[in-house]
């Protein structure tokens, strides 16, 4: 059985979180409610224009255009739909509905698991004194999820494995402890929770600590989160945090000017992935044309110390790439550490298992963690048609 992708899971979580927030909205009036039009009743729906107003007012989108794009992404991913399936989402007086509210959302095992995990992590259940209006579990006001010390580290918003098992049995989430452990393991495997150091699977143990990672999905505004997942550009307002981050990221990636999109033409694509088949004196690493600078794929700076931390989430992997007539088929960028920026999906690097966002640890036996991407490119060019790489990637994959 094919598992739900990380992208689909996060879009489902973002949609479910928005649905719950809109259902809980009581000011100035219910956004989601039964509505009539031409003597026909449309239960549990919302008006497109009202949700656009709400998203802009709550800062989830910078403007109405961005709000519409967010909702269109949710519609394309079967989270919402027009009540008669006649329209894409528009900033108009049209009725739409969450598919969860009319039972038209295709429910697979993984989809049901994601929704169940969301409900568990968001319920105020973990605080016996919580009220029905409480939403996301706070570390300061609950007895189960709180700051915990594990060896020499203090972890925020974490819980003990056996305590969650106790809670799930007491609250009727599962029939017994065995079933609770199985549910916990599934939630961990799908990526909704994690061990604080990623060292253990979920187990009924009073000495293992875990965290829900769902809140990290909601750390960004809806506009930014969906834009990252779909790889789309949303309007920027002058001086907005996203514009500042974009400029800072450009400086971080070696002081280049703001990157331009890759050419969609076949010729440009072929040139970009010549993959270290240039002369060693070539100024660009990766064989892309001189005027092209791919958009950075690393959204957060990762240090060499983080990569080498024994308790960190990064693992090593050895990859051998056999060059074809064009080259190795990938592009690197960055400095200390260098990372894989682009991989030709039909090239030899992709076939060998190289992926975007992998960090280069060594090239043909030489450690390059403290090198620049130009130095790494020159080292690759010195080799023959066989390239031995040691890469580092997050244990959950890129």
Automatic annotation (TrEMBL):
One example GO MF annotation: guanyl-nucleotide exchange factor activity
Residue ranges of domain DEP in the record: 26-100, 154-214
Gene Ontology CC terms, in alphabetical order: plasma membrane
GO biological process: G protein-coupled receptor signaling pathway; intracellular signal transduction; negative regulation of TOR signaling
Residue ranges occupied by any PDZ domain in the UniProt entry: 318-395
Gene3D superfamilies hit by this protein: 2.30.42.10, Winged helix-like DNA-binding domain superfamily/Winged helix DNA-binding domain
Region described as Disordered: 261-295
Low complexity bias locations: 279-294
PROSITE patterns in the cross-refs: DEP, PDZ
Designated name of the protein: DEP domain-containing mTOR-interacting protein
């Amino acid at each position: 059985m094919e598992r739900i992708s990380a992208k689909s899971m996060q879009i489902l979580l973002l949609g479910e979180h928005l649905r719950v927030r809109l259902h809980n909205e009581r000011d100035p009036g219910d956004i989601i409610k039964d509505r009539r039009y031409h003597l026909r009743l449309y239960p549990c729906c919302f008006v497109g224009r009202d949700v656009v107003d709400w998203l802009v007012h709550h800062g989830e989108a910078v403007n109405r255009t961005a709000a519409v794009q967010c909702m269109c992404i949710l519609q394309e991913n079967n989270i919402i739909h027009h009540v008669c399936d006649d329209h894409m989402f528009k900033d108009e007086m049209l009725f739409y509905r969450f598919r969860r509210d009319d039972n038209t959302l295709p429910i697979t095992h993984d989809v049901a698991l994601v929704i169940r995990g969301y409900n568990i992590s968001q319920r105020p259940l973990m605080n016996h004194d919580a009220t029905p209006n409480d939403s996301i579990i706070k570390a300061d006001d609950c007895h189960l999820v709180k700051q915990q010390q594990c060896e020499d580290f203090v972890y925020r918003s974490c819980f003990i494995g056996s305590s969650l098992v106790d809670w799930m049995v007491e609250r009727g989430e599962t029939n017994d402890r065995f079933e609770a452990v199985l549910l916990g393991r599934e939630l961990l495997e799908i990526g909704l929770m994690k061990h604080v150091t990623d060292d253990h699977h979920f187990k009924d143990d009073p000495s293992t600590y875990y965290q829900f990672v769902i809140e990290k999905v909601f750390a960004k505004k809806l506009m930014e989160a969906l834009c990252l997942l779909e790889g789309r550009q949303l309007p920027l307002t002058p001086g907005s945090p996203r514009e500042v981050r974009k400029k800072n990221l450009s400086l971080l990636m070696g002081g280049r000017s703001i990157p331009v999109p890759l050419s969609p033409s076949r010729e440009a694509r072929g040139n970009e992935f010549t993959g270290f088949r240039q002369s060693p004196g070539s100024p660009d690493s990766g064989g892309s044309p001189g005027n092209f600078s791919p958009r950075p794929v690393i959204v957060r700076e990762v240090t060499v110390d983080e990569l080498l931390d024994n308790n960190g989430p990064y693992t090593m992997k050895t990859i051998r790439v056999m060059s074809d007539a064009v080259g190795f088929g990938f592009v690197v960028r960055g400095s200390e550490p260098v990372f894989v920026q682009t991989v030709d999906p039909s090239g030899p690097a992709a076939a060998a298992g190289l992926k975007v966002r992998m960090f280069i640890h060594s090239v043909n036996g030489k450690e390059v963690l403290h090198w620049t991407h130009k130095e790494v490119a020159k080292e690759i060019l010195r080799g023959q048609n066989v390239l031995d790489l040691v890469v580092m990637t997050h244990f959950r994959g890129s």
